[in-house]
Sequence to fold (252 residues):
Amino acid sequence: MSETELRVVCKSCGAEVSPYVTECPYCGARVRKRAPKLERRGGGLEPKLSRRERRRERQARIATEVDRRPVVTAAAIAIPALALLVRIASGGDLETFGAVAVPLDNEWWRFVTAPFAYLNIGYLFVVALALVIFGPGLERRLGPFATAVLFLACGSLGVLAAYGIAEQRGAVEVIAGGNGMALGAIAAWWVIVRSEAGREGSGAQIDSLGVLVSAAVVLLLPVVVDLANPWAGLAGGAVGALAGWSAARLKR
Fold:
């Protein structure tokens, strides 16, 4: 067997003995009526599980697999997709569905909703593709709650930075979309994985070219999409890189 587990206490002498014996090797007292049946599991011999124990083990394994599903990444894509479909079906304007208009009339909640407001499917597709590629890796490393906070911080602070710059210039424009969220996810993933590779040596392989291409596509979104503010993307990427660096330091 893989290892000896001393978990059974002899009632006669108080010594800890192996759970696989029927008599105490120290005093000879009867520990149990019969030795447990063994089966080969995980490269070693383990006590055979009852039906109830097998069911509990299977349920625990299923629950763990469910916890690992990228639910935050899926929500970050599904919410704006649903809002876009509703807006198109209802014929409403983008500001009604959470976009930030410069100047802003004390509606600060729009900094949270603006990263989820999209004018067209093409813009959403690029952001969603970046989140699909890098979001699940972040959720596995950080957990759902931290990933949700990261996405919101990158998106909202990116929009806030873009709004501040636009207001300083006296520009009148609309800011919407999650290019800051997408670039923040890419930056956070890159920093965390690079840190892991540094700790593990040359064992971890990183597709640097793929990360660079993904970041370049998101950065160039403002060239083809008016509402994809370049400052929102850069600020969101900076927030993601800082969050990834902090997470990597905490892991160390």
Q: What stands out?
A: Confidence is low (pLDDT under 50) at residues 1-6. Residues 162 and 205 are 35 Å apart (CA to CA).
